[in-house]
Each structure stands twice: as structure tokens, then as C-alpha cells.
Amino acid sequence: MNISKIDLNLLIYLDVLLREKNVTRAASQLNITQPAMSNGLKRLRTLFNDPILVRTSDGMVPTERARALGPSIRKILLELEEALQGEEEFNELKSQRVFRIMASDYAASTLIPKLLRALNEVAPNITLDIMTPSDVTFHDVEAGKIDMAINRFDELPQSFHQKAIWRDSFSCLLNADSPLVSKFNLNSYLGAKHVWVSKTGFGVGVGMDPKDVQKLGWVDEALARLGKKRDIKVFTRNYHVAMQLAYEDNLIATLPTKAAMLHKNDSNYTIIKPPFDIPEIELKMIWSPLLHHDASHIWFRQLVIAAAQECQENQ
């Protein structure tokens, strides 16, 4: 195979086709017509003497040859993207760039306000577009459509760059007038009603089952290790909702300390250390290798870290 006779655009077509496993979606990703993508697939089949994608009852499925080619093609394209990335100087004062961030409710509540204040001081024309975890996928991050995702991640694709934002303990948020405040211990904790709140991952979520402890997260897993279980009245993915319910309905909200501390100066609430040990959580930011060497992105990542450090100092 003579590389000088190969249309390198076909490698881009192959990369997107293997991700999307759908000709129409792949065409949309590349802003070309569906017939153009179909023609590209036909040329790829000729080039590699392989069907590349085969239609099955589960949709289009990559062949063994295509799956083997995938990682190498992705690596080649990433290295080419980095090599062609210009060294254009970034001027934050004049920039009108839009940074798109996927942030969990927890991250958006605690980190983003500090980040926005920093932006207003040094880059007043830059705009933030904050998206929820259900708005995006790992593919969106990998493709550079989202500048950064900030959340707690159990597993990440190896190609992603990542940086720890902070580690956080847990605290209990209660109505200041709750009778539990004066006798807060493990027994009173277990005898009370609770509001559950936790992270959301990428894509559309599913409903919770109170009996499925392994999926309930850090708080309930810690209790399970003690052979205990709390009485969950409400499940929510929104920290502000959980905090409001703690006040209005006398529920206990056990949540990351930085979220609870948003109400440290509110006399309606009391913040108490949990009566049992809960492992700390780690907040991370992740980004695509396609953006790793971009001057504006490097500057923005540094600003995020500085905002996170300010949050740590002011807690």
C-alpha cells in the first residue's frame, strides 16, 4: 500500500465511523452529506480489503480488522493534530472565547462561582457554557466538543488527560431547629429520614433502588460496612434540592463538605460531622488530548486550578 496515493481524509472517516457505528451520525459529525460518507466507507472497504462495518441485528458492528485498526488510527490523528497545532499567543483580555464545561451540580455549586469571579477580573469577554453530565458523552469530550468535564469519575478512557481538583470529606446538613441537633449520634442518624444526593455520570441516568446498596454510593456503602442502613425518603441528583429539603422537611442531607459549607453563614441550618467514617471523594477535571496543547486551554486549566485552591483556602 503506497501511502502517497492514500487520501488521508479516509483515516478521519474511519475514526469517526468506528466511534459512531452509524453512517448518518458519522456524516453529521464531520459536516458532510450522508452519500459522501457512504462513498467514504466504500473507499475504505476497497483500501483495506475489508467490510469495516457489518450490518447486524444490533446495528452496524466493526469487523475484527476495523477494531484492530481503531487505536492506531486514533493515535495517528491525535499526533497529527498536535503537530499542526499552532503556537498562536493567547490574549485573555481580548478573547471572546466560549469555554464549554460539563460540571456536576456539586462542582457547579462550589467551584464555578469562584471561577466566574476570576474570569470577570482577568478575561471579561470570555463566556462559560455550563452543561450537565446528561448533556454529553465521553465521545464529546474526546472529540474536543466539550473543553472540560468536572466531576467524580470511577473510570476514565486512557486517552484523556486529567487533574485532581480537590478531595472532600462529608458533612450532615440539618434544619437548625431539628431536635436531632442536640443528640446527634449514629442511633439518632439511623432513626431519622434522609435525602439522598449523589453524582450523575455521563448520559441519561436511571432510577434508584433503595435495596441496591452498591449503587447508592459512598455514604450507604460506609453504613453497609457497619451492618447499618439509613431510611431514605427522597432521591435527588441536585445538591440545592437536597439542601432545601433538609430545611423544609427536616431530612438529613449527608453531602460533600464543600457543598454543605455553602450554608455555613445561614442560621437556618446546622452543619454536623457524620457519626461514622465516610471515605473522602475526589473531584477531577478531564479534557481531550486534542486540546492539551492549545494555548487558551492551558491558560483556562490554570485558572480552574487557581479557583479550586481559593475554594480550599476559604472553606
Features:
315 residues; alpha/beta; Arc Repressor Mutant, subunit A; D-Maltodextrin-Binding Protein, domain 2; 3 domains; 5-stranded mixed β-sheet
Descriptive account of the structure:
The chain is an alpha/beta fold and 315 residues long. It folds into three domains: 3-84, Orthogonal Bundle (Arc Repressor Mutant, subunit A); 98-167 and 282-314, Periplasmic binding protein-like II (D-Maltodextrin-Binding Protein, domain 2, 3-Layer(aba) Sandwich); 170-279, 3-Layer(aba) Sandwich (D-Maltodextrin-Binding Protein, domain 2), CATH 3.40.190.10. It is 41% helix and 20% strand. A five-stranded mixed β-sheet has the order 4-3-5-12-6. A hairpin with a 2-residue loop joins strand 1 and strand 2 (59-62). Helix 1 packs across helix 2 and helix 1 packs across helix 3. The chain is elongated.
Structural class, from secondary structure content? Answer: alpha/beta
Strand content: 15-25%
Q: So how many helices?
A: 13
- The CATH class label of the largest domain is Alpha Beta
* Cα-atom radius of gyration: 24 Å
Order of helices and strands: HHHEEHEHHEHEEEHEHHEHEHEEH
Number of strands: 12
The global form is elongated
How helical, in percent, are the residues?
40-55%
Task: Describe the sheet with the most strands.
Answer: 5 strands, mixed
Strand order of the largest sheet: 4-3-5-12-6
* CATH architecture assignment of the largest domain: 3-Layer(aba) Sandwich
